[in-house]
Write a structure and sequence with these properties.
Distance between the termini: 36 Å
Mean pLDDT: 95
Order of helices and strands: EHHEHEHHEHEE
Number of strands: 6
Helix content: 25-40%
Radius of gyration: 16 Å
Low-confidence stretches: none
Length: 193
């Protein structure tokens, strides 16, 4: 059985302000660093074989902090870059609603391309690692896209709000994917005070 633990990156200043980040390369803020440290502390009690990350700074920083205690090979994969939101990147929700009330953002990566890119990355993980336990640090739209695809749209894109540094787990066994859990935040002090 292949197990993939999906970790959303820690908080950034743009997350805090509600700005759409997309491919804009924003670092973690202090809260995001703490969230990554809490992920590392929680995840160290499990056995992992590799850690895959999006190359964007916020995901890579989260992965590097997690890997301080996990100590497994760290691999960057372009397939898990955040969705390109085109002309809406950098805008807050209020600004997006005012400028694009139809939620159609010019120059945005379309859903089909996003799904194909991300699921091809998941297939590559299964091919490369087989029946191992993999951590994957990525972004909200990426993880939601995976969850939507594997649940036939029951959860994920447009339905599930993923918190920064949340954990979701999926398994591939006997040619079938199963979602074990999603948006787990019990390891994060910022949501459990």
């Amino acid at each position: 059985m292949t197990t993939i633990c999906l970790v959303r990156h820690g908080e950034t200043d743009w997350n805090l302000k509600g700005k759409l980040q997309g491919r804009t390369d924003i670092p973690l803020n202090e809260a995001g660093i703490l969230q990554a440290e809490e992920c590392s502390e929680y995840l160290k009690s499990f056995v992992w074989d590799a850690l895959v990350t999006s190359p964007l700074m916020r995901a890579k920083q989260t992965a590097e902090i997690i890997n301080i205690k996990i100590k497994v090979p760290l691999i960057e994969m372009e397939e898990f870059l955040e969705r390109n939101y085109g002309d809406a990147e950098g805008l807050t929700l209020e600004e997006r609603m005012r400028v694009y009330p139809d939620k159609i953002y010019p120059n945005q990566e379309d859903q089909v391309s996003l799904r194909n890119r991300v699921m091809s990355g998941i297939e590559k993980i299964v091919e490369d690692f087989g029946e191992r336990r993999i951590l994957l640090v990525a972004h909200g739209a990426i993880i939601n896209g995976i969850l939507a695809n594997l649940s036939n749209g029951e959860i994920g894109s447009g339905k599930t709000k993923l918190m920064n540094a949340c954990i979701s787990s999926i398994h591939f066994h006997q040619e079938e994917w199963k979602i074990e859990n999603y948006n787990q935040i019990s390891h994060l002090s910022c949501y459990n005070n």
